[in-house]
């Protein structure tokens, strides 16, 4: 929290300089602008700490605004420097000799440039955040992802797993969000539902009612869940018991056999890596050892980075979330420093890994370049092995 406060405090200082300090002269307007920026900073911190809708909505929206204001003002630094260094030529008087030499940009001109760029930055930020909010708060996109597995029996071709992650029930997303996700999944009539972590940001007492619609999930072979990092911040043991009560079966370093038409595959789940700090870490050996190696394995693991360990245990396909697809550009660039797959289907150490963008959001209710999704992963026999 201290590190976050320092970083975001620096962003506020930069925004204050570009939106207030250089656009006003000493006096009342500057004092009002300074007070406004300071007040928004306090509001944002209060929204993060208190976590009530009254404070969280404006606090998180402002967090998105100050982030994009910093980015936009940073981009505008180049034209600002160019314009400030451009000297205006003063035309020569009639009948005089050559034009007077260039004179430096005067304070009024610098003030005009600063105000113009501040307005442009504010308009751009409002557009970006507004667009991002419509993406984050709108219906998740439903994506169909075909995955070909060499070991899969042809009788299981077309088997559909509804993958949803990062629902993030909390102060900004409640029961209506869960109901929408359940409705959208049920409309697709999947064979199995996989919730791959980060369901909640709060305790069962706070959010049990918001999660209750999960009991209405309908699929041929049921719904399964693995922990994400946020479950460990929210009281994972009560949540696992609550999900089990709702008919969503936690896979805690274990596996089950899924059968259809005389054919089968193994569905396994491992705890999130954050669980290691809570004496509940991932145990791949427990989840995967001792199985029939001829049977394909689909692993539920919250973070894509867990694929490196999954590869050592012969996993065929890993289903993950956690990244939010980057959620707010340009955070997309940072995700790759930690995770091997930001979004979509890729191969990590020989394991196919599918990473969903998630159906919710964390922090600001804004998504830019990473719309929320629910994924229907269709399993198919590998054509190359026919």
From TrEMBL:
Protein name according to UniProt: Metallophosphoesterase
Keyword Membrane set for record: yes
Annotated source species: Saccharothrix mutabilis subsp. mutabilis
Keyword flag Iron: no
Keywords: Hydrolase, Membrane, Metal-binding, Transmembrane, Transmembrane helix
Domain Calcineurin-like phosphoesterase, first and last residues per copy: 160-325
Transmembrane intervals: 35-54, 60-79
PANTHER family for the chain: PHOSPHODIESTERASE YAEI (PTHR31302:SF31), TRANSMEMBRANE PROTEIN WITH METALLOPHOSPHOESTERASE DOMAIN-RELATED (PTHR31302)
Superkingdom of the organism of origin: Bacteria
């Amino acid at each position: 929290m201290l590190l976050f406060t320092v970083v975001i405090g620096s962003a506020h200082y930069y925004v204050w300089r570009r939106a207030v300090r250089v656009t006003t002269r000493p006096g009342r307007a500057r004092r009002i602008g300074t007070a406004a920026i300071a007040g928004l900073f306090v509001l944002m911190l209060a929204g993060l700490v208190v976590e009530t809708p009254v404070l969280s909505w404006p606090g998180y929206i402002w967090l998105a605004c100050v982030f994009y204001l910093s980015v936009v003002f940073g981009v505008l630094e180049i034209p600002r420097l160019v314009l400030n260094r451009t000297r205006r030529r003063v035309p020569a008087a009639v009948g005089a000799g050559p034009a007077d030499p260039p004179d430096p940009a005067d304070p009024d001109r610098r003030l005009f440039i600063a105000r113009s760029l501040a307005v442009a930055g504010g308009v751009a930020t409002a557009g970006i955040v507004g667009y991002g909010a419509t993406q984050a708060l709108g219906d998740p996109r439903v994506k169909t992802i075909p995955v070909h597995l060499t070991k899969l029996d042809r009788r299981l071709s077309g088997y559909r797993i509804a993958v949803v992650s990062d629902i993030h029930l909390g102060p900004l997303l409640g029961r209506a969000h869960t109901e929408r996700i359940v409705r959208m999944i049920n409309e697709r009539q999947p064979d199995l539902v996989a919730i791959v972590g980060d369901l909640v940001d709060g305790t069962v007492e706070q959010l049990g009612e918001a999660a209750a619609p999960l009991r209405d999930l309908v699929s041929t072979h049921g719904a399964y869940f693995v922990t994400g990092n946020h479950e460990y911040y929210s009281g994972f043991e009560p949540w696992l018991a609550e999900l089990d009560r709702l008919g969503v079966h936690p896979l805690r370093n274990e596996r089950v056999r899924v059968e259809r038409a005389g054919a089968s595959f193994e569905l396994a789940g491992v705890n999130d890596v954050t669980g290691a700090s809570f004496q509940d870490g991932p145990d791949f050996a427990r989840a995967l050892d001792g199985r029939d190696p001829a049977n394909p394995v689909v692993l539920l693991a919250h973070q894509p980075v867990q694929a490196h360990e999954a590869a050592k245990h012969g996993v065929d396909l890993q289903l993950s979330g956690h990244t939010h697809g980057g959620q707010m550009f340009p955070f997309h660039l940072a995700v790759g420093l930690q995770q091997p797959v930001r979004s979509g289907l890729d191969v990590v150490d020989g394991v196919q890994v599918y990473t969903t963008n998630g159906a919710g959001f964390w922090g600001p209710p804004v998504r830019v370049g990473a719309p929320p999704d629910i994924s229907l992963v269709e399993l198919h026999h590998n054509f190359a092995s026919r």
